Each structure stands twice: as structure tokens, then as C-alpha cells.
Amino acid sequence: MARIRNVAILGYGGYVPRLRIKATEIARIWGREEDALPVREKSVNELDEDAITMAVEAAKYAMRRAGIDPAEIGAVNVGSESHPYAVKPSGTVVAEALGIPPNFLAADLEFACKAGTESLQMISGLVSAGIIRAGLAIGADTAQGRPGDALEFTAAAGAAALVVGRPGNGEVASIEYARSYVTDTPDFWRRAHERYPSHTFRFTGEPAYFHHTLSAVKGLLEEAGLKVSDVDYFVFHQPNYKFPFAAAKVLQIPKEKVEQGVVTHLIGNTYAASSLMGLVRVLDAARPGQLIVLTSFGSGAGSDSFLIETKEGLPEKRAKAPLLDALIGRAKYVDYATYLRHRDKIRGA
Amino acid sequence: MRNVHVVGVGYTRIGEHWDESLTELMAEASLAAIEDAGVERVDGVYVASTFCEVTNNQAGISALIAEALGLRSVYGVRVEGGESSGMMALMEAYAAVASGLVDFALVVGGEKLSDLLPDEFNSVHSMTLPYDSMGFAGVTPASIAALLYRAYLERYEIPQEFIAQFPVLMHNNAEGISHAQFPFKVKLEDVLGSPEVAPPLRRLECFAPCDGAAAVIFASEDSQTKRSSGQTVRIGGISMKTDYVSPFDREDPLFMTSVALSVDEALLRSGISRGELDVLEVHDSYSIVAPLILESGGFSSRGESCPDLKMSKYALEGELPINTFGGLKARGHPLGATALYQVAEVYLQLTGRAGKRQIDGARAGAAISVSGFGTIAGTAVMLSGEGE
Amino acid sequence: MRFNFRPQSHWRFKRFRYRTEVLRCASCGTVNVTPRPVCRRCRSRNLLREELPERGRLVAFTVVKSPTEEHKELAPYIVGLVEFEDGTRVVTQITDSDPEELRTGMTVERVVRKITHDGDSGIIVYGFKFRPLVS
Predict the structure, then answer these.
(1) Domain A8-171+317-342 has CATH 3.40.47.10
(2) Who among A48, A49, A322 is closest to C135 (CB)?
(3) What is the ipTM of this complex?
(4) What is the pLDDT of residues A129-144, one digit of tens each?
């Protein structure tokens, strides 16, 4: 894992459902102090939305930006920890909805919040090897959180997608380096047939999120021969508002290089889409010729880190679909009871 | 072709018949009709039911009805044409009697919907819409009615009160009628204050699920019956037409070509004009559907049916009384049975047996039956014996 | 009712349900929504597959407050009439909106959403709906 050759981001798209619940509304129900909440608010899916439908929305924007014929797509990878079916691939529905003809590779991935960047990693490999001309890398989740659990404040809904292919046709960006760092660390899991995940309290931060994230970023920068000051934007997985800035602080990354890629305070943790969503927001603002380090984290645990360089095609492609802030901006707030209905937490109804 | 006469009718009360099966209801109506007609034999049994497979797990129902009537070795057929199933069965029986294939035909329609939960009923009723382009998506008949309603209000720039007068008229006509589902009056403000089903459409502008069965006996002109000439009514003409299944695929969603063509053809076959009709039955499944039918059928100019209603044209004492026993809204709409109730009620009018609802001197009448919003429409024109 | 959820029939209609793929008559231009051998208007056999445009105009809408069994989990939901540039009209659900946010004449765009699901063990039926254009 190192230098990536001849792989470009041709189009990108992020999708956030329009419903939100304020963290204070969740705190009101469970009697939590309002001054220590991990996010301000989080996104909530509509009753008719799930990881598949949100993957379609994000991928549609990505394909619109790429201006690509669906027949050019040779692989569709959907990373999620909330695939609507336990067995029956999400990628099949996503591809047919997008009009992608049958000769493509479909793979559903699961690695907690890391499955989206895994998709990117794998599609990049297929493109680089010349096996496919282009592919769709998607992270999408309607994340579960047990009622009353700390995770309920952040577990959100959203999707992000990238069309990845060969460079040379007004691409958005190029993917230059990739690096992963994975260990067996039981910080968070969900057993088969369980509705909600379990987690190992404060374990989540130090040996899990920070160790893997920082190891991956350091490895990537070393590999690429870059210093923090050479990079314009750092995008991290964002399970809450604090963690990405805390990680940045350790690496002595100025706050300004991180802020653009943080959306978690507004939409919560979109799990497999989380770091990709940050990348989408950075691409919504970046100029051609800038360097971005994208780093995911997935419990279990591991991180994927990428060095991405924006290209001349970015401004033109950006204009072809709504900016992420437009999707975030159509927020409509729901109360806790409505949220329970939308998350299918009222069983027996 | 031989002339075909209605020689007897029978029907059950419309409502919730918890203690009677669909077969019992249809047999009860059939026996009443056979007794009313005083016929010795029936050669053909024409059964109309829109949803007996779904509501009663029953296919091949014509044989069950025949057996329940003590009939064996007769020709039995079941006809399904959505909400106009009853008219379709009448048309088939008419053709058989006119051609000489059958001398005495029993046409019976029945439906049993009260066993269904409200949402189950909506699922079943939605089958009258094109499922693969509408029903699957949760589009209901009431929602289509609402879209047409909005279009009508906008086009003719009238308030909802104008349309909501139709159910008020229906309830007026049904008051005290023993076979009616809702034999009482309602006020305009009750209609407009009832819960929204699909705005602007309100609960009291919609028919309600119910059970009921009605039957009509057809006999050829040369068949011997105990009926005096004053007690038989000739089918002057009957006609049915299909149309594109979505109203929004038609040139004008507010115009039912199927109604226009079937009314024209049925009148042509009868040799009479619209103006000669003394009584009319229209398919008011939803309040908005009545004006659409009256205008499509040429009884009111486009956009004029509500003013015509206001001027009492369609009232019992008006120029052309409609739905004299309350129509689908108040007498009731047991789907496959409805056209049989319509024809039976016109028969009562033309034979002077309509009691308190009798239109004096009624000699010609018609019934218009529609499925959905004009997907299928049928018209039967009936002429009293004395009018011959 | 349950038998509407058969995987086979959903599979058969997925091109229409996922992408509004219809049959346009090459002879007279009429759009025929569901599969068929000849054009409903001119009976030509020359029917070509085509996707309806992703954007249309909301002509009218209502709210289904008395839903069917298979759609009751979504109720109340909005049903609208959407018209495309060529005059073709479809009746469909309008999602991502409350009735008071809608106005006739507004631009709406096609999305794929869950239509229904067959209990906890059967298939999930996806299909198109429209929503106010996000720009």
C-alpha cells in the first residue's frame, strides 16, 4: 500500500436527509446534562429512506458531476453497517436504480465506520490495475443507537459517493497515496441478530480512534514525504465534534485545515459516510492544486488514509450538483417520538 | 335480436351483515327477484362480484350461487369489471337473452367488504386503479378523486361547497329508505366538517365499505311471465366502453369519454334522447365523480352540473332526478352489486313501485355505472312497458 | 395485500419502478407507462424504451390520510400529479416535504425510496418518488 497511479476522482456527491433531531431533545428524554453533548444535532432518515436509497442519492450526484455514462461503471462498492438486508447486496439495487448495466462488480462492505473508504480503496485498486475503467465507491448508513445510549446522540443518516476512474478528462482530483492501519481492537461491535451495537466505554478514544487514525496519517505522510504544512486540508472520521480536532492537535495541524471537513456537529456521525462526507464538503470549497489527507476510522478497528490532490476540473464539476451545505441547510426538526418512529424503534406498532 | 325485459328485482339492505355470508346475501337477493318476477325457471346465472377472491377466498362463485338457489345444470358465469362489474353482468345477460341463447337470466351482484379492516379495504379498492403504475406506489382511488377535485375547482373557479352538495342530495334521497346504508339526512356543514380523507376530499364525500346484494331477472319478450305489461320494463339499450386506465393519460382528465360514448350508444339503441329520460342513476362513488359523469354524459354542460344541482335540476322534484334512493354515497356502494341496485331502482320508478321516492309518470330511465374514474363505463337505458 | 409483494412481480417492473423506464411510441410519440406490445394510441409496435426526465412540474397534490395496508406505515403521505415537458403525466408519491411546503407549478425531481416492505422477513420494495428540487 503506497503510491497509487492513474486513479482520479471523476465526480463526488454527498447526501443528507432533511430531518434533524437536536441533541438537547434527546438529552431531555434521558435526563442528560445539556452542556456536555457530543454534537449539536444529527440527521434522521425519512420513513422511506435507508442506506440503499441514500446511497442512490449520493451516487446520482457523483455521477452527474462525473458526467459519466452508467455503462462505464465497472464496479459498485457500498460500505455500510446498516445494509437493509443481512443477505442481499445493497449494490445490486443501487446499480439498477442508477441504470448501470449488469457487467459490473458489486461488493457490499462492512467495517463499522470505515467501510466507505474501503470502497474507495478497492475501486482505486481495480482502476489502477486496469480491471475497470471507473467505479462507484459509496459509504451510506442509517446508523443504530440504543435508546438512551451515548451513541444515540450521534448515530445519524447520510451517504457519500465518489466516481473513481482513469485521469485525463477534466477530473476533480487524483488519488496519490493510500495507507491503512488495522488491528483487532474490540471497541465497538454488533453481534448477528442484534438491533443495537455495544461499545467499550472510554476505550473508544485512546486505543481505538486515536491510535489507528494517527498511525495511518503518520504512515501516509511519511510514505508521501510530506509535512503537515504541505497539506491544505485534513479530513478525519468524526464520531463527534471533538475527536477530529483532538487528533489534529496531536499532529500539530492548525484548526483551519480541519474545520472545512467537519460536519458532525450539524448532522451527527454518518458512520461509513462520515469521513467521505467531510471530503465532499472540502471538495465543495477547495481550489485546484490543493492537497487533502482523508483518514477514516472504523471500530474493530482500523483506519484508511489517502492523499488526494484537487485538479482543474473541480470547479466545473462542483457546479453540476447541489453543494453539501444545501442539503444540510434544508433541515427540518423532529421531536424524540417522531425520531423513534423514523428509526423503527417503536416495535409492535 | 329479441327485446329484453326486466321482469323482477330483489335486493338486501346495504350495511354490515355480520351473520350472513356473500353466498347467502346473493342467494337472498336472487330469490327475492325470482319471486318478484314469478318466473318458473332460470337458464342463466350471471354473477357480478368485484373482489370475491380476495374478500371471500372464492373463485368459481357462479356455481355456488346456483347451488344455493337450488339450481343445477344451468349456465353460470361470474363477471368482473371493477366497480362496474354489475353493469357488465347485465350486459352479458342482455346479450344472451337478446340472442336467444337464454330465455330467463338471473343477474345478481354481491359484495362483502365489512370483514375488511379500513386499510385492507383501501388495498383492495386500489386494485381498481392500474396497480403497476399507481397502486404499488400507494396511490389510492380517493387520492385520484382528490386530484380531479382540485382540478375541477380550479378550472371552474368554484368553492368546495358546490361539489359537497352532491352527498347532501344523496342523503336527502336516502332518508327513510329501508335498503339504504345511510338512510338519514346530512347537512352541508356536516360534509365539509367531516375528517379529511385526501384533501380536499372529506369522509362524507366518499362511499363507505359495506355488504349488499341485488338481483334482476331478464326475460325475452316472448317468454311467458306472470307479470302484467305494466310490471315489466324493457332494456332499450345497453352499452359499455373502456378508456385509458389513468385519467391523466386522457385528453381531459375531467371528461370521461367512456361515459359519453356509452350514454350516446345506449340512447341511440333505445331510440330516445336525453331529454326523454325521467330518472337517472349516476355513480357517485366520490362527490366529485357525480358532476364529472353528469357533464361527460351530456346532462349538464361542462362546469354547469353544480349550478344545475343548485337550481334543483337533479332533485326529486327537478327536471331529471338522480339517485332517487340515495346513490352510492347514501344508499350504498357494494361494488359488484351497485349497478344491480341502480337498475333495480330505475325499475321500481318505471313500474310505479318507488313508494315515497316515486317520480310521477316516470317512463324512461337510465343507469350509469363507472369503474374507477371512467376506466370502464356502462349505461343501461330502460323504458316502461306503458311507454311502448 | 400480501400477494402484491411477490418478488417476481417487483423484479419484473423494476425498470419502471427504479428509473421510470417507459415505452415511447416512435410513430406518434405517446408514452406508454407499463410494458405492452403496441402503442395505446396508434397501435404501432415501434415502441422504444426511454427514461422519463428526472425533473417535472407538480400539477396538483393531496395527502393520503386513509392509506392502504401496505403503505400505512408511511401515512399520512403526499400523492401528486407530476407533468413532464412533453406533457406526459404520472401520479406518484411526493416525499421529503410537508403539504404546506408544496405549491403547484414547482419543480420536482425523481428519487428512489422505499415503497413498502413485506413484514420483517420479505422483500423491500424500492421505487421512484418525486421531491421538491434540491439545488
Answers:
(1) yes
(2) A322
(3) 0.96
(4) 999 999 999 999 999 9
